[in-house]
Amino acid sequence: MSDLLIFGGTTEGRALAEFCAENDIEAYVSTATEYGGDIIDKAEKLHILTGRLDMEQIARLIRREDIGLVIDATHPYAVQVTENIRRACERTLTRYYRLVREESAPVDSGRYFDSVSEAAAYLNGVSGNILVTTGSKELKEFAPLHDRCTVRVLPSEDITAECGTMGFSRIIAEQGPFSEEENISHITAAGAEYLVTKDGGRAGGFPEKVSAAEKCGAKLIIIKRPREQGISLERAKEMISAMRKRIAVVGTGMDGNRTMTAEGLEEVRSAELIIGAERVVSSFKDMVKEIFISYDPNEIAKHIAETEHEKIAVLMSGDCGFFSGAEKLLPKLAGYDVRVICGISSAAYFCGRIGVSQNGAELVSLHGRRGNIVRRVCAHERTFFLLGGDIAPKDICRRLCEYGLGDAEIYVGENLSYENERLTHGKAEELTDIETDKLCVLMAINQRYERYIRGCIPDGEFIRGNVPMTKAEVRGIVVNKLCIPRDGIVWDIGCGTGSVSVEAALRCECGTVYAVDRSAEAAELTDKNRRKFGCDNINIVTADGKEAVKTLPKPDCVFIGGSGGELGDIISAAIEKNPAARIVITAVTLETLNESIRLLEAAGRECEISQTAITRVKKVGAHSMLSAENPVFVVNSE
Asked: Which of 554, 440, 438, 544 is closest to 490 using CA atoms?
């Protein structure tokens, strides 16, 4: 059956139906009334449905007929109908596009109202005959004025009978849109001093109503059009034409042969054109098909647009939903009839081969990219790495050993599902020199993984020196106020021992902390502490804060624990790179506090200020003595 469903009965709906008929395109066309269906030219591949449908009925229709694309060409004022269609498409995961009429320029001679009821209330307070051209649905609002009204409606016996029930005796039952001359005739026949209309645009004959009213001296009462966004009639026609091309984006599994699903293989066999990277399409070169070799989404989309083939299979290795090129390709295929068929992912295949469950595993792609390795392994019992770029299994094992995780259990898989498949198992410390194929995967199992994110880590756990350190309780307040995203970028300016950097890094497992300090000793201590706590997502910058921030990436959060007299430059750089960056400053002197407030307020930022005083208890002989830390001010700005 058809993949296309058009909701209309409007001028645009009829135009789309005619376009489908002229181009031999099968489509369902739904109209609210039988009359709306009757005026659409009958064609073999047009299936006309009449009657109003609610959201549930629309959803059932979409599922029953396996609709792939819905174009909503209903009247601009049919707000509830549009909402029902949109919600039904959301529920059924169906592509939906709203066709929007071009808006008319404001009419100086018209009086605008937000609703029909407001217009009717206004007319109730004035005298004079009225021609109502808003359609039959809203006539009940004008029923109290029936003795002064002529109503123009569709030529349907049901509609005219309903008008009579509401008390209207002067009825013009004709199909529009109407010419200026016809509008003048109707205004004159009604003796109308007021013409009530919606802004139906050019397609709805609105300009002809305006000119006729002005020539007849009738006052225009205009119901404002609801604001909406969507596509034009021409764009809708382009999308319908594109539906001739049926594109299957197929995940080929590991080798594109034995591990491809039967459904995917059927799509490839029935395709007229196969597209994909050389390695992926090699298994299908014996088929009598045209083949286009490319993995670039722009090249693929361009070739699809230019080819005359209508049945196309685009092949992606593995699973289209698992770190696949399909993610970048699909937006470029908007408007086509696209179906995605997932294959067996490398993670699923590999876990099956080594007998390890995927449940709870962290999935990380290092295929052509870099990322946090140690932090991910520290935070998860099982971490799966998809490789294929500059990072090889031996690099991961060496990194783990550097951070004290040499006992992590490692599985490596190469050339999965091919004849030369190789699986390797051992400890990280045993595999630091392993040579592997470039395209491979790795699973790290860490029995000592972190079961929770630590906060307020005791001061004594950090490697200390002669540089300042933000104490545990204050550190806990600071890190919480930073509200660090899991993939965030954090600046720690004046990092000292790196205690704040470490706690920030624990929270942005997929992000990066930039620890900045001019002191070489501070940089060395921060390096030791990042290794102790498994935080390879800390980048250390040894430089003045003013100079360092010039080259740092856009921050989500900034902590300034020591500025070296460059507070203003650091704040300005952070806000310039990201006006929404959250900034937290600690101050132990009133001068620093006042300067922080002044600089932030000058930058248009509001400040939340708190002061904390920590008192610890120490044992002195048989007694417990209170030992107070210096009070610290915390300035929070977002």
From this structure: 554
